[in-house]
Design goal:
The longest helix has 25 residues, at 340-364. The chain is globular, with a radius of gyration of 24 Å. The chain is α+β, with helices and mostly antiparallel strands.
């Protein structure tokens, strides 16, 4: 099979692009790259004439780092990030309410928490987009109308020079932020939990290197709840909650920012204040994520309090979930109804993240001294007997959607994010995604071909599936040599083969242990790293592949010929 970035775009004189992405923030940029890497034509419409140079998000977790690496910027992420060492909550007196230690090599092969200066991340994504011939980025283009007719969507656009133009696309994705025009145009209702507070945000650039241990701290002081977080190399952020009776105008002054920063050793002599501004966080989500051929992603679909650090991470998950489903739909490998599972999966996932963030916020945003003292006593009592910091939770699994039904049964890993560790193949050792490649993966402990037969094998080939046979660390794989390929079809994709059986050594022992943990001999993993389902034995593996084909609800040609949708 051909690698995704070598697909020939379809000939279509009725549309200008396969997918129009409205908004070129990190979510829109990541989505456009993920689509273009699959050979799709993508047009990005961004109202700003130039990139926004101030940070909004300050970090992303290990799962999100893995998803960002899938856009082709993995080898450069380390240059714009610093791994966070931990996250603590302190009382006003400095006692520890919460203590989480972050690993520099976490469950998903990346640091558990990565602090970053957001403009640097957007520069990496922009450079990657510029390297892909399928992407057209139009800045200074404001979408003012959207019309869907005859399986096409026409966007009316106003340009900065006053001209009007239209862009005709097969699909449209609104990644245009909290004040989304796309969402408002669709008249999508929003669920608002009514939980919001105003905070003063202060981004600083340190004049001299300085160590902060742990990297991230939440001071639960009723006199002024305060947040301290890393924001990438040489940058940090402080946030100060507006107090009852305090005016926004009083808080939103540069002299106020410097006064609040001074107790932390941050002064005009030690740092440059990049920005100080107030903002009001919200807890809200769109009640519909799809209307016909128009979809929502990122802040256009959801907003959440910052306390779990999941705002941008959730948007990147949206992009990763949506990209492969749009690709399969446009290639005729799945029915368009598969896009309903995008809203089903991401909507429930985001609701859970928002509710969790609100719960954290209700603990943090306490300004009554008596209530704070009661909170502190309760939390400290619960911590008695604990020694050392805890570890971050695993990524939140999917609970519904395009998964083996019904979730593969009790104890099934269906919906979980598969871990990432080192493997060896073809004479090289590295993280699984880099050694094997990305896309669908059928991970097995034996040769599945006799049980699958030609028809199922052709289905997997049409999906560009990596079929991987694992072996424990040792001098040789099952076929005699680690990385040997038991079939032809080498596509040059990151050192492995698509839909030829590839033997891989489980160098760290993580994958064989994961299979054993779930009494499985095979895992079918989706391109967004969520497990579709597990199987035990050859017959169950065949049934697992059948179920994926049934769920995609499309007759897939053996050669994977592209159709249009």
């Amino acid at each position: 099979m051909r690698p995704h970035d070598q697909y020939e775009p379809p000939t279509d004189t009725d549309t200008d692009t396969d997918v129009a992405v409205v908004g070129n923030g990190p979510i829109g940029a990541a989505l456009s790259v993920l689509l273009a890497q699959r050979g799709l034509r993508v047009t990005v419409l961004e109202r700003r004439p130039r990139p926004y140079t101030l940070p909004r998000a300050t970090s992303f977790d290990g799962e999100t780092a893995r998803l960002l690496a899938a856009t082709g910027i993995g080898d450069r992420i380390g240059g714009i990030t610093e791994p966070a060492t931990g996250y603590q909550w302190h009382t006003a007196a400095g006692r520890t309410l919460l203590d989480i230690a972050f690993s520099p090599r976490g469950r998903y092969g990346w640091p558990d928490a990565n602090t970053m200066h957001q403009p640097a991340l957007e520069e990496l994504l922009a450079a990657r987009a510029a390297s892909l011939p399928g992407i057209t980025v139009l800045r200074g283009h404001r979408v003012v109308d959207i019309t869907e007719r005859d399986e096409r969507v026409t966007l009316t656009v106003e340009t900065d020079d006053g001209a009007d133009r239209t862009v005709v696309a097969r699909w449209v994705v609104g990644c245009d932020g909290a004040n989304s025009f796309v969402r408002e145009h669709l008249d999508v209702p929003m669920t608002d939990l009514g939980f919001s507070y105003e905070w003063l945000l202060c981004d600083v650039e340190l004049r001299e290197p300085r160590e902060f241990t742990p990297t991230n701290v939440q001071i639960c002081d009723p006199a002024r709840p305060t947040t301290l977080v890393g924001s990438g190399p040489g940058h940090r952020r402080w946030e100060f909650m507006r107090l009852p009776g305090e005016s926004s105008a009083e808080l939103n002054r540069e002299e106020t920012a410097w006064r609040l920063l001074k107790p932390f050793g941050v002064t005009p002599e030690t740092a440059r204040l990049l920005r100080s501004t107030t903002y009001i966080f919200r807890a809200t989500w769109a009640d519909a994520w799809r209307s016909g051929r128009v979809l929502l992603a990122g802040d256009a679909a959801h907003l959440m309090p910052p306390f779990a650090g999941q705002g941008m991470c959730s948007g990147i998950r949206d992009a990763a979930n949506l990209a492969w489903k749009l690709d399969l739909t446009l290639r005729g490998l799945a029915d368009a109804s598969v896009l309903d599972t995008y809203a089903e999966e991401r909507g429930q996932h985001v609701k859970e993240s928002i509710l969790s963030s609100v719960q954290l916020g209700r603990v943090i945003c306490v300004t009554d001294p008596a209530a704070a003292a009661e909170r502190d006593a309760t939390v400290l009592a619960g911590r008695r007997g604990r020694t050392g910091p805890g570890a971050p939770d695993a990524a939140r699994p999917l609970s519904a959607g395009l998964l083996r039904t019904p979730g593969g049964g009790e104890g099934s890993p269906a919906g979980a994010v598969v871990p990432q560790a080192r493997v060896s193949a073809g004479g090289g050792t590295g993280l699984f995604d880099e050694v094997v490649g990305r896309g669908f993966v059928l991970l097995t402990t034996d040769d599945p071909r006799p049980a699958l037969g030609e028809d199922r094998w052709s289905f997997l080939a049409a999906l560009d599936t990596h079929v991987v046979r694992l072996s424990p660390p040792g001098p040789a794989g099952p076929a005699g040599t680690a990385g040997s390929t038991a079939d032809t079809g080498d596509d040059g994709d990151t050192g492995a083969t698509r839909t030829g059986l590839t033997d891989v050594i489980d160098t760290d022992g993580r994958y064989l242990a994961y299979l054993a943990e779930h009494d499985a001999t095979a895992l079918l993993v989706r391109p967004d790293y969520h497990v579709f389902g597990a199987a035990s034995g050859p017959e169950d593996t065949a049934a697992l592949v059948d179920e994926l084909r049934d769920r995609l609800a499309a007759a897939v040609p053996a050669g994977g010929t592209r159709r249009t949708a």
